[in-house]
Amino acid sequence: MSNIKGKPDGGAVMSTAEPMEGCSKFYRCSTNVCPLETDWRKRKHIEGESVCSYLLESVKASGADVFDADSLAFLLAKAREIGAAYPAIGRALTKASSGASRILAARGTSAYRGDRAAPMPKVRLERIPGAGRPQNGLHGVSEGAREATA
């Protein structure tokens, strides 16, 4: 059961018992194979279905600009596992790896334009399965937003 709290910017921060429900994209996500779910291997995936946007972002060259080191390592390991288990997802990850970051493009960041002078806050996945309980209950939020809610 989720506990939704208000953020200073008017958004919502979710604190839940299930890792995948703690993802900031959970309630509008339509992917069937979630890297945060512990039993993702039991899920079906058909060519053309959506793939986790965080998985797709993690394999891009700009992955380190989007995610903190722990989250990126987790997502890259899951991308290898899931891509090997589901060939259609593996092909989607390979295709995504050569593209530009959608997250950075949406933010209109300097990193997307190639200017490293003004780095943006990175996404930190705090509810990584097997990594223990998060300290503040936030998941998939930028470091700046996390500090603002502390």
What is the structure about, briefly put?
The protein is mainly alpha-helical and 150 residues long. Helix content is 37%, strand content 8%.
Topology, pairings included?
Elements: E1 3-6, E2 12-15, H1 53-58, H2 63-66, H3 69-85, H4 87-97, H5 102-107, H6 110-113, E3 123-124, E4 141-142, H7 143-149
Antiparallel strand pairs: 1-2, 3-4
Element order, helices and strands? EEHHHHHHEEH
Q: Give the DSSP E fraction (strand runs of 2 or more residues).
A: 5-15%
Helix content: 25-40%
Taking all residues together, what is the mean pLDDT?
A: 73
Instruction: Return the structural class.
Output: mainly alpha
Number of strands: 4
Ends apart, CA distance between termini: 22 Å
Q: Spans of 5+ residues with little confidence (pLDDT < 50)?
A: 1-17, 132-150
The helix tally amounts to 7
Your description of this structure?
It is a single chain. With 150 residues, the chain is mostly helical. The protein has one domain (3-149). Helices cover 37% and strands 8% of the residues. The protein has seven helices and four strands; from the N terminus they run ββααααααββα. The chain has helices at 53-58, 63-66, 69-85, 87-97, 102-107, 110-113, 143-149; strands at residues 3-6, 12-15, 123-124, 141-142. The chain has a two-stranded antiparallel sheet. A two-stranded antiparallel ribbon has the order 3-4. Strand 1 (3-6) and strand 2 (12-15) form a beta hairpin. Helix 3 (69-85) packs across helix 4 (87-97). The longest helix is centred in the middle third of the chain and has 17 residues, at 69-85.
